[in-house]
Design a protein that fits this description.
This protein is of the alpha/beta class and 333 residues long. It contains twelve helices and twelve strands. It has a six-stranded parallel beta sheet, with helices on both faces. A six-stranded mixed beta sheet has the order 7-6-8-9-10-12, sandwiched between helices.
Length: 333
């Protein structure tokens, strides 16, 4: 027969409601009583029911993480940090995916009984934040933000990393620079493009429109765009990619075309995902602490749930340039 909270109450010498409050760490219960209740619960092997907790507190302790594509390596590297941070605060992570950012996504999130949602997929024109706000479901932006609703966010400041990367590229003789940028309706693609153009301008280099491609933040985009760039009569000597995953596609395209990296073309990514440092890849890239950024998003989410009226917080993570094998002296032209 399963142990109940009434059994714990009898052993601890308190009422059943006091057991529930003590195990929720209710400030109205004294430290001594909490200690006695927890010792009784441990002795009996009592495990509180999550459903019961939800009924008594009005919360499920479940946080959603919305991502677009589980095949994208970027998301696979942030799930664990978010999970561990939430778990340490007594929350459960629930993963949600989407194929399009629309009203249906918001309604599905609302219907899942979540206490809050971490949005890792917002586009600047997304309506999902509007729907979540109007229905009273707290959310935090991770990496990307939307234009219509201000909210807690963890974002990347790309300027420092691009400045260092461009300065080094110019030192190595690169002047004909190409770029494979992300979707124009994402804040990440917009801020990275602005930073790249500003860094190039500082060094007296312009970004030729004929050497710019845009697409999804995925390997297929990097492959297709780089194939086009390398087939030009006068291809770039250096290609900046919207992220590391795009850069992996660029490396594949160069290998298929028989173009040597970095002897014939240099490639630079963004994110510094773990595979970027593998000896088989050794990708030069713009780095930031994406794992800490994920943990910070989890903290902001918990804070927003516990204190709905807290001031909105935007946490920026700075970037730096990590030089590896895929950047070298520009080939003579």
């Amino acid at each position: 027969m399963a142990v109940t909270s009434r059994d714990v109450a009898r052993l601890a010498g308190v009422s059943q409601p006091t057991v529930s409050r003590a195990l929720r760490d209710d400030p109205r219960v004294s430290s001594e009583t909490k200690k006695r209740v927890r010792e009784a619960a441990d002795l009996l092997g009592y495990v509180p029911s999550e459903a019961g907790r939800a009924l008594s507190s009005g919360r499920t302790r479940r946080i959603g993480l919305l991502v677009t594509d589980l095949d994208n390596q970027f998301y696979s590297h942030i799930i664990a940090p978010v999970h561990h941070e939430l778990e340490g605060m007594g929350y459960q992570l629930v993963l949600h995916t989407e194929t399009a950012d629309n009203e249906t996504v918001a309604e599905r999130l609302i219907a899942n009984g979540l206490d809050g949602v971490i949005l890792a997929t917002a586009t600047v024109d997304s309506v999902a934040p509007l729907r979540l706000r109007d229905r009273g479901l707290p959310f935090v932006y991770f990496n990307r933000t939307a234009a219509f609703v201000d909210a807690d966010a963890t974002v990347v400041s790309p300027m420092a990393g691009f400045s260092d990367a461009v300065r080094r590229a110019v030192e190595l003789g690169h002047r004909r620079v190409g770029a494979v940028l992300g979707p124009s309706n994402t804040s990440t693609a917009q801020t990275r493009e602005v930073a790249l153009r500003a860094a190039l301008a500082e060094s007296g280099v312009s970004l030729d429109p004929s050497l710019v491609r845009r697409g999804k933040f995925d390997t297929a985009c990097g492959d297709a765009a780089t194939t086009e760039l390398l087939a030009l009569p006068d291809p770039p000597t250096l290609i900046f990619c919207g992220n590391d995953v795009v850069a992996y596609g660029a490396l594949n395209a160069a290998r298929r075309a028989g173009v040597a990296v970095p002897d014939d073309v240099s490639i630079v990514g963004f994110d510094d995902l773990p595979p970027a440092a593998w000896p088989i890849i050794e990708l030069s890239t713009i780095a930031y602490d994406f794992a800490q950024m994920a943990r910070e998003a989890a903290k902001l989410m918990a804070r927003r749930i516990e204190d709905p009226d807290a001031e909105v917080s935007h946490v920026e993570f700075q970037t730096s340039f990590v030089e590896r094998r895929t950047l070298a002296v520009a080939p003579p032209r």
